[in-house]
Amino acid sequence: MAFCSKCGNEVPAGAGFCPKCGEVQAGSAVVPATASAQSGMSENVAALLAYVFGWVTGIIFFLIDKRPFVRFHAAQSIVVFGGLHIINIAIGIAFGAGFMITGGFGAFGLGSALYSLVSLVAFILWILLMVKAYQHEKFEVPIASGIAKSLAGN
Question: Rounded to two decimals, what is the model's pTM?
Answer without folding.
Answer: 0.67
